[in-house]
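U., I forgot to send this yesterday:
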Amino acid sequence: MLEHNMHLSNHLEESVNDELFDSLIDVLTSERSVYQELKSFLISEKDMLVKSSAFAEINKSNAAKENIILKVRISQEARINLLKKISRNLDINEEGASLASLAVYAGSGKRQTIANLRNDLLQISAEIELINKENSYILDKSIYNVKASLEFLTSLLERSGIYLGNGKIGIMQNNGRLLSTEG
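Result:
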């Protein structure tokens, strides 16, 4: 009777182990599939980021923007020099002279034109500031997403363990971390 109970107990234990191993195999198969999906995604993401046409377009855009900014600086410099010249001709302190304060001395037609141009410049400047804030937000979100992805990938690497000879998962030691010595 005792032998029969031991045999029945061993059979139940083998059955439970078979079910657990089947579950383990299912989990590992699923995990492999998910890792493969992640790998495929990262490969396609890399291909997208490495496309020379995308970087060429960004570089082309940046070059055009730099040219426009250079033109803006040249224009600002010319405006400042003219305001100083007008101030000297009117015997007004150059430091306190502004476009609005000097426009008063222009004829009525020119005064209105200067006022309209000043208002247009203020409006365009405000719109540029808004667009810059929106673009900055987009870039900040992109940087945040990149950082979050890197943290996620790092956490996967740090959490992953190694299989030990006894079948348990051991914690992988991080030998030789790279440290920044700036400062």
